[in-house]
Design goal:
With 129 residues, the protein is of the alpha+beta class. It has a single domain, classed as Alpha-Beta Plaits (2-Layer Sandwich). Helix 1 crosses helix 2. The longest helix is centred in the C-terminal third of the chain and has 43 residues. The protein is elongated, with a radius of gyration of 20 Å. The relative contact order is 0.16.
Length: 129
Amino acid sequence: MKNYLFLGGWFSLQYAYVDLEINDHYAADSLFCRHKVPVRFGPEMARDGDKYRIVFCKIRRKHREEFEKALGEIANKMCLLGHGDYDMYCGMVMQMLEKARTDKTRKQSADAETKDDYASSAQTAGSVE
């Protein structure tokens, strides 16, 4: 089960992952500390009524392996804390994010093709004169 999405980056890698706030702390925080991974946290998203949050963050490339190991341990921690629906929620969110990413890529490709078609038709029209 995948609970994170790699968003890109070269030196500083960007991720989004699913987490749960417990008593003003997040479940993943202690795992990042245990794996000695410095994380720069960004914005968070949550739907009304959802207990889970999507957290955006950045890490350095050299910490990638340990960061992903820590994220892999979150599912076990959630089970121990009594949140057995974590895997199902992550699957739903990751599917939704991947679909949004795919749709965006398709739209960008279609827009590029439209611009190319417009440019070639403009060139053809210009050469006729």
